Amino acid sequence: MHYRKREVVLVRSEIAYDCDVLVIGGGIVGLSTAYAITRAAPGTRVTVLEKEGGPARHQTGRNSGVIHSGIYYRPGSLKARYAVRGAAEMVKFCAEYGIAHAVTGKLIVATGREELPRLHALVQRGRENCIPVRELGPAQIAEYEPEVRGVAAIRVGTTGVCDFAGVARQLADASGADIRYGAEVVRVDRRPTLGVAVQTRDGAVVRGRVLVNCAGLYCDEVARLTGDDPEMRIVPFRGEYFSLARPELVRGLVYPVPDPAFPFLGVHLTRGIDGGVHVGPNAVPALAREGYGWGTVRVRELGGVLAWPGVWRMARRHWRYGAGELRRSASREAFAQAMRRLVPAVTADDLVPASAGVRAQAVLRDGTLVDDFMIREGERAVHVLNAPSPAATASLPIGREVARRALAVLGGV
Fold it and tell me: What is the pTM of this model?
């Protein structure tokens, strides 16, 4: 791991690199990056290190499976551009490789007149992002979703669902990369004139010319291990889901009108590729980066989050919103009550607990919740520092962009 000054002079030309590009993280973004590199520059040696025993074990494999249209995101932002482009590409990718998917469309429903200005703003945003939308009145809502009630809605036809974990497995198989599972990174030694040497928990050392950090929930820690200041911290938010015991209440995808102050879309109903209906997620603070339940507490990780000034500024700014999310987490009846605004027939007994997910949300020092994808570069390194939803939808264009940057760095060393 350590290069003494004399060794640098004598053996620099004799370093045996294990790969040209070393990717940390085997979620859908890391695997899409590996896939994009080998397609853009055949012959480039790529190694992917993933701490779990297989791909897509965290954000990728624990979301609602929605192929997002891109309607929510600020025109010109990375999220808007990559989600719109990525949605179309994801459908084609799934069709090409036989991965389960469906283009279902969705409704975004205003349940009160006070939500109409935000709904109309979404219509305008959709048009600016070149997304076709149809405005609906109450009777037209019932044509699509007989059990849904609202004063108005918009239908977004390009939304769909797919098996993102299956997409990740296909990207891994098709990338041609050397993918090493069970390889948790514990140390990074970067030398600008030499490259990067990464040590995994089992003591193995992997050497590469360029490092790509797609570590998701741990991306800020990997950036600091590399020696770069990410100027943000990952704050984990758990999204809790239920399955709907009466899936016949919902035909497709039904969303509330989101609050533009937050990067969360609100609790929604999603008919998945298996025919079941998921309800959720909410957004509550997790007590560990992989805190999929209230019983999972990691003191070091929690302390690191609480030591970041941005967390306290965020909490002071948004405590009312957070209190509502905590209430719905503690009470299934409160969760059902929120759902009844959209589907009045839903009861607490209809909600069956399902697996939770954790969103890796970047928070700046001033308490700002980063609302766009964040990709930063360091010497011999590219860091993906904010890639929550809709990153799975946008993973193919994100992978190409990260690959472009990594190959540019590689070409300059």
Answer: 0.93
